[in-house]
Amino acid sequence: MKRIVTNLGVLQIFFSLLLVIAIMFVSTYLIYRNSISGIYDKVTQNNTLVFKSVVQSFDDSFRTVDNIIHSVHSLPPSDNLISPDDDSLDMTKVYTLVKNLSTLISTVDYIEEVVVFYDDARLAITSEGTSGFERFFDGKYRHDTYNASYWKTYASTKHAFKIFPADSFKVLDINQQPQSRNLMIAFGGNKLATSSKNVMVMIDVAALLKHVNQQSVIPGASLILLDQDRNIIYSTDKQWGLVDVLNDVYFNADREASLTRENYEYNFYKSDYNGFIYIDKVPYQFQNLNPVTQANDSIMLTAIICAVALSVFLSIYLNRPVKRILRLLGGGHSKGNDFRKIYSGIVKLQADNELYRDQLAFADKELRRGVFLQALDESAHAKAHDIQLQTYYPALFGEHCFVMVLFQARPRPDAGEAPLPVETIADRLEAGLRREGAEASVFHVSRAEFIAVVGLSKPEERARLLKRLRGSIAAAEKEALLGYDLWACVSEAYASEIKNANRGYRDVMNGMLYRGVGDAASVLDVEEIEYVWNVYFPFEKLEKLSNYLLNGKLQESVQIIRETMGENAARNVHRHQLVHIAKSMLFYMLRYAGSSANMREELYAIETEFCRRAEQTFDYRELEEALVAVAGRLSAYGRAEPKNKLNSAFISQYIELHYMENLYLDQIAAVMETTPKYFSNYFKKTFGVNYVEYLNKVRLSHARDLLRSTSLSIAEIGEKTGYLNASTFTTTFKKYMGVSPSDYRKQNDQQIV
Fold first, then answer.
1. Three-state DSSP class for residue 187
2. Which residues make Cβ contacts (< 8 Å) with residue 654, sequence separation at least 6?
3. Is 671 in contact with 707 (CB distance < 8 Å)?
4. What's the confidence (pLDDT) of residue 752?
5. What pLDDT does 640 receive?
């Protein structure tokens, strides 16, 4: 036993538990003292606020009843229901009044019924139909005092608006079984009535109390309601005894009053609306407070004794587990402060856990990115694989709907700083969206493309998101992503289902493809894309482009490039259309650039570099300059004429360049520095056809393009393609094509580009 008592670990545990118990005791005692001293004041203050709210609710309810009575007086008919023709009851007026009554009280749940009757007609008109006056009050709504005779007598006297005290009525249900119902009758005044109607409103007291919501008043409090003549209308306390209280209290309309009698406090409130008096009867003090205090002291003393004893036993019991925990944390059997060693071990575990948490967060983020990329993939996946990934779907779609946003983030050439990591760009884009109030997850997809899934509670929020997105991009370009050019494309709104992810992705990808080259907006709405197909593609100029480059005419080549790109930009064609045009121009330029092995490798490098740049640029001017740069590199190959002009490449290029001229056999033979006969034999052997036939095919190929794409006359087209007159052109065209030029144009009629 001595060994246990002198054990440092046991003493540490004991004093630690004792310190905890002491702190708990002091805090409990202070709370107890403070709560006992101020609890009544706080409860009564809260009750005062609640009761004022109840008074306001009663006033609003009585105001609604008064408004309904005035509305009934204004309903047609304003006179009696007797027809002036035959002194009979006009049922059309009756049914109209029934319908209007039903509409009038349909939204007020605490009104049991509205009854309308006339002095000269023994008929009760309600929202549910009509009934005999005596049958209604002596049968359906039965009361010993308030019967049909009482109401007829009261209606014949001059009276103001009055609310009769709540009382129990025998009411027949739909099965004609009597049920007790607590009702309050509001009878409209007839001193200043605007019609001959007598109007009664039957109020369901239970529904009225539910409407005013007096559940939050202090337990034991009572509500007493008096009219302006100090007649009790309703009371929750049957033994109220107000005679002496009302005689002692001084009460007027502009202030409240309070009175204490015996064990209760009476708080009086007078309504500004109708002069009704509301009395809140609450207990003045908590009774038997001293026995409660003594019992609480006994409980705390007993708890202290038990806690000390429990500390002793727990100290001995926990000594061995503490040693084991210390060994698990690497403390071994070394002497010293056990709790300090445990603390050091826990700190080390926390550091390890923090590292593991970061690793798990990274893995979880990458897994969510993988799930998202899989959702964009239209390929089929194993069902088991999809089931395992379904747990990550809620992280992608936090709302009922979503839109997908494709971001393009390109560093500016003049930024002068190293590009940011794609993870950093994604995080900053996501943070920018959240600052604008949009719940989003942003993922890096490829190169400079980032996809954001933005949640919407309803599709109508999409328009507001577009405005916030413009502000987010403008702010990012100035701060978080300074040195970057940002574009965004927003998809349509879709229901938050994983199958719609691919549809949103197709929207934004197609949106970037169909972006107008002249559109400078930072945010593209796929719903506002205007699809156009007025591409400018001059075939005859592009044929000349390759020939100009072959002959080293760079200036003429650049002019064709700028004219073609500028015209398409003016027409605001789609981005993918302009990229296609640029690639076609590139292929025209590469067509006759050369055929040696070294040249093919360089041409391959030129082509791949241009295609990569074309896919990443959004400004048509950059694309135009890239074409001009390619033309400059290719023109160097065409400046030096071949030593032997009599080769197939040079001959075909010369014909393509000069087909519109009078290119006779002896003229081209002279250009090739040979005789017409030798040239003719060489041409036939090399090309498989004679020279004239080949020249006609080249000319007619261009003529067909002009017939399809221009409105030039037949004679003008013949002249442009090298024929002396329209007759020769028509005869030659029909010989090779089988139809005349005019018939060919009709067969291939299309819109002129």
1. strand
2. 668, 671
3. no
4. 41
5. 47
Measured CA to CA in angstroms, residue 124 lies from 104, 139, 227, 431, 453 at distances of 17, 12, 27, 69, 65
State the Cα–Cα distance between residues 93 and 460, nearest whole angstrom.
47
Q: CB atoms < 10 A from the CB of 323, how many?
A: 14
DSSP letters, 52-65, are HHHHHHHHHHHHHH
**Residue 718: enclosing H or E segment and its boundaries?**
helix 714-720
Mean pLDDT of 389-408: 78
| Least reliable range by pLDDT among 238-242, 538-542, 678-682 | 238-242
User: Over 80: is that where the pLDDT of 396 sits?
Assistant: no
The pair of three-digit structure tokens given for residue 745, joined into one six-digit string: 């144009």
Pairing of strands 523-525, 484-490: parallel
User: d(Cα 304, Cα 456) in Å, to the nearest integer?
Assistant: 57
3-state secondary structure 365-387: HHHHHHHHHHHHCCCCCCHHHHH
Residue 751: what pLDDT? 38
- Token digits of residue 264: 């209760």
Cβ-in-10-Å burial (0-12, 13-18, 19+) of 26 comes to exposed
Cα 48 from Cα 200, distance rounded (Å): 33
By percentage, how much of the chain surpasses pLDDT 90? 2
How far is it, in rounded angstroms, from Cα 750 to Cα 255?
A: 91
**Cα distance between residue 243 and residue 262, in whole Å:** 15
Residue with tokens 């925990």: 325
- Looking at per-residue confidence, does 79 or 35 come out higher? 79
Phi and psi at residue 574, in whole multiples of 5°? -70, 160
605-616 confidence digits (pLDDT tens): 888 888 888 877
Could you give the CA distance from residue 720 to residue 541 in angstroms, rounded to a whole number?
A: 13
How do residues 544-569 score in pLDDT, each as one tens digit? 777 677 667 788 888 888 988 888 88
Cβ-contact 538, 566 below 8 angstroms: no
Alpha carbon 567 to chain centroid, angstroms: 41
Q: How far apart are the first and last CA of the chain?
A: 108
